[in-house]
Amino acid sequence: GPLDVEVTLSMVRHLHEVEVVLRSDGHTYVATQQSEDMYASIDLVLDVLDRQVRSQKGSEHDRRRHAHSEK
Questions:
Q1: Which residues are within 8 A (CB) of 55 and not within 5 positions of it... i.e. 6 or more apart?
Q2: Which of 42, 37, 39 is nearest to 7 (CA)?
Q3: Using 50, 70 and 90 to split pLDDT, how confident is the model at 15?
Q4: What are the residues whose beta carbons fall under 8 Å from the beta carbon of 62, sequence distance 6 or more?
Q5: pTM for this one?
Q6: Does residue 20 come out as left (phi exceeding 0), alpha (psi in the -120 to 50 range) or beta?
Q7: What is the DSSP letter of 37?
């Protein structure tokens, strides 16, 4: 399905803050990270989103597998 991404880069005091809102297949994932380096903040926020998406996909896969096994 379509993928919608919003990225917000901002400075909070001396920290670089990155917020990403990702919408895909009816799910919304939000991650915000701060560090003293913008690129480090981007890496951190992508790691968080990656884990969120993988855990969502994993739980969907588990539900489908259980639904089939109960028949």
A1: none
A2: 42
A3: very high
A4: none
A5: 0.78
A6: beta
A7: S
